[in-house]
Write a structure and sequence with these properties.
With about 300 residues, this protein is α/β, with parallel strands linked by helices. It has seven helices and 16 strands. α3 runs parallel beside α5.
Length: about 300
Amino acid sequence: MRKKLIKKIDATVNKKEDLVVVLAIGESIRQKNLNLYGYTRSITTPLLSKVNDLYALNGHARLGSTLYALREMLRKDDIKLTNVINSAGIDTKCYVNYQLYNNCSMGEIEAVKGKYENVYDEDVIPLLEKDLASYESGSKFIVLHMGGGAHGPIYSQRVPPTYNILKPSCESPDMLNACTEEERYNSYDNAMLYQDYVVNETILKLEQSKIPYVFIYVSDHGESLGEDGYVFHGIPPGVSLPKEQAEIPLLVKSSLPITIIKKDVYTQPDIFDTILDLLNIETKEFNKNDSFIKKP
């Protein structure tokens, strides 16, 4: 059997500093149902709406499934972002509650222990907290995959029972035919309310650590709740996504001064270059024109 050749990555750090960059990836979260983006039907981001200096950007997903969307952010030309960062001598870690489909190297991944049906997005936070407690100095990159999110077909199964507040809700996998629009929206909004808690709690842990950080939260894709006859997600590559699946949240919070480059739309591949820019990494895989977060 021929050994697979590993492509050598030339990457260097042009400026050493203390900074932890955290990329949190959510599941099936759409802008349309978040108060941060103007949603008024119900209160879905009571915590994040009060966070100072939180940027809510117009994120855009091109592909409608986790398998493909993760590659949009964590690979370029089939080269893993974590491999580039490691090649520059910066430590990386990936904490997951489901899986990252081989977009982090095995030695970098730590998964939440527990059965599929008993794992929630908040379960990655103690792994992050433990990592932060061991931090001493230098740069570090951490990926959090919050893979429960609002994945259907029954949204209530992805959140703790205490967050199933809005009633009546949809408890059928045949969401379009068995449930009313009110039931579909109530169920999804409950999942948004829980995601608000998880993301806010992650930010709180970073703030409490007193470590210099930049936090980026983005969803893999959005979700359809019956608009134009679409439900859930999973449209095959090559087919344009409806706006409910394409328009995703992209949130940025930083403990240090930053400037956000103004764009009408922020794409998922932009995240790859932005993280390399934040970590001061020079490599041919880096396109500085696509980075949207700048430090002083």
